[in-house]
Design a protein that fits this description.
Elements: H1 2-13, E1 17-21, H2 25-37, E2 42-46, H3 49-58, E3 65-69, H4 77-86, E4 92-97, H5 101-113, E5 117-123, H6 128-145
Parallel strand pairs: 1-2, 1-3, 3-4, 4-5
Helix pairs in contact: 1-6
Length: 149
Amino acid sequence: MVIDEAAGREHEFARLGVLVVDDDEFMLEVVRELLTGLGVSEVRSASDAENALALIDSTTESTDVIVFDLNMYGMHGTELMRQLASRHFAGGIVLMSGSSEQLLTLAVELGRDLGLRVLASLRKPVELAQLRTALESAAADRHLRGSNG
């Protein structure tokens, strides 16, 4: 039964549209591979916040989750959160940082204050189990909303 439940959750992950944003190419690829390994079939990526916003603005594909680094060159992750809030982004966000736990905690508070749905805050290097838990929340929310989001 436990195996069936896990397989069902990962089947739900296949329906999620995930965007990964990080200016570190290595981390970008690591997170993409983790997501693909969890069964996410639609994984897009951007090397900075500006490109991520352009993808969100120009695509008709659903973005259910955005996984992004807080410390990026150019537009910082906190500004990306402000931009997502101004666009009324309805999906979930997963914050990543190699910095202190305190920075992640403050960023989570900011995201929630902005009205964003913060699924998780992850310290780098990202662990598979933490990413899976965040996706489970996103898949459950997507299931409750139906397939129109």
